[in-house]
Amino acid sequence: MTARSDLPADFVWGTATAAYQVEGAAALDGRGPSIWDTFARRPGAVVGGDTGDVAVDHYHRFGEDVDLMRELGTNAYRFSLSWSRLLPEGTGTVNRAGVDFYRRLAERLLERGVAPWATLYHWDLPQALQDRGGWLERDTAERFADFAATAHDALGDLVTSWITLNEPWCAAFLGHGSGVHAPGLQVGARASHAAHHLLLGHGLAVDAVRAGRSGASVGVTLNLYSVRPASDGAADRDAARRVDGLQNRFFLEPVLAGRYPEDVVRDLGEQEWFAANAADLARIQRPIDFLGVNYYSRHTVAAPDAAPLAAPDAAPDAAPDAAPGAVRSPAAGESTFGPAFPGSEDVRSVDTGAPRTHMGWPVVPEGLVDVLEQAHALAPALPLHVTENGSAYPDTVGGDGLVHDAERLRYLQQHVDACAAARERGIPLQGYFVWSLMDNFEWAWGFSRRFGLVHVDYATQQRTVKDSGRWLRAFLREGATTAD
Ligand code: FCB
After folding, report:
1. CA distances from 201 to 8, 144, 186 (A)
2. Where are the beta strands (DSSP E) in 368-473?
3. Residue 472 CB less than 6 A away from ligand 1
4. pLDDT tens, 371-416?
5. Measured in angstroms, how far is the CA atom of residue 394 from the centroid of ligand 1?
6. Catalytic site residue 373?
7. pTM > 0.90
8. Which of 442, 447, 449 to mutate to test the pocket of ligand 1 (most atoms within 8 A of CB)?
9. What pLDDT is recorded for position 479?
10. Which atom of ligand 1 is nearest to the CA of 449?
């Protein structure tokens, strides 16, 4: 039973979105194309052939959306900057109209008492840079640092909280391993080179932001999973080591401890390449002001050849549209981890009977404490923020004009409880952002998966606060308990 007052008075309570998922206005006011504009047009890449061309029209409706944030009682908004809106070619000339948009957004937020948190890279690399090799090329890390400097010059007087990357695991391994995200490549273990260049870009961007105006707080957001072996057997424990290795440690350790986990580099078969690039680790391990943790679920894993301990995962929604996103989440119906986990492709995901969201992801709130503890153990003094947490359910607006999303409401309560539990254990958790403020373009799933506290009617762009949003408002305003 958590009340708002159980968390510190200066705790950050926010919502999150990302540029390509909400802005729309894809070809407006000088924005250049990104890899997601290209990828979404590839036949079969996105459910229903959906694109972010219009998305939820946040570009034009941000005023109304900021008012909703205030109505919810949140005090922060995490959004991302579209690199190709600010630098249409990825480098070179700055697009004034892009700067103006983000300045107007940040000003509106500040007027409404909502702190702007800007993410520099939420997966939408300018297509011009992809044409030069994208994240598989080291040069992209340098271009990212230049972009960070440009963005900070343009907005640093309004925005003080900066996140370099969102979920480099997804950008590297879904983008270049399984290929279910842009740029849709399948280069096997070489996807780890993209991960390294992303991390190098992170370190260089930290320096670029710090070189600007003082007072900026800068961090990076990783998507961490709680990982458990399905049994105590050595083979299952090794499966958990591999999955935890590539999903969590491969990102946490370079950023926080200046090293890559040797076992993971060995699993990948990339010892030589990582040895040749080891000097970059000093650049990757730049001091940061906070770590952002995105948490959604737990992976319970078993060795490839073990006899099944439980029924293998079944897609709760084995709809024909399951294909593109299926690889993205092994728990959504894959029996193995597939090419997004090079070096552990055959590891199996096991169904423990936990309830699942519309993504097929098991709901395991206590896993949030696991991942915060894992990060905290590596950097005990570093403040942590949950920069995303949320759930998809197939919501509809009822005859009463409301959206009764009881499962999301419960999910939210349980994860807020987990935040309080983490603080009780002495973890310096300082903020919690719900994914997402409103329903939006859910990558390979298009508009078929809804994560919002606010429902969006995609035909009319009408926004309706869901019961989960109404609960959050009550919790934040009145310190309501999570048990009601
Ligand atoms: C995360 C992404 C975010 C959203 C949620 C559901 O991996 O960062 O953009 O798609 O998943």
Report:
1. 33, 6, 22
2. 384-388, 429-435, 454-457, 462-465
3. no
4. 999 999 999 999 999 999 999 999 999 999 999 999 999 999 999 9
5. 17
6. no
7. yes
8. 442
9. 57
10. 6
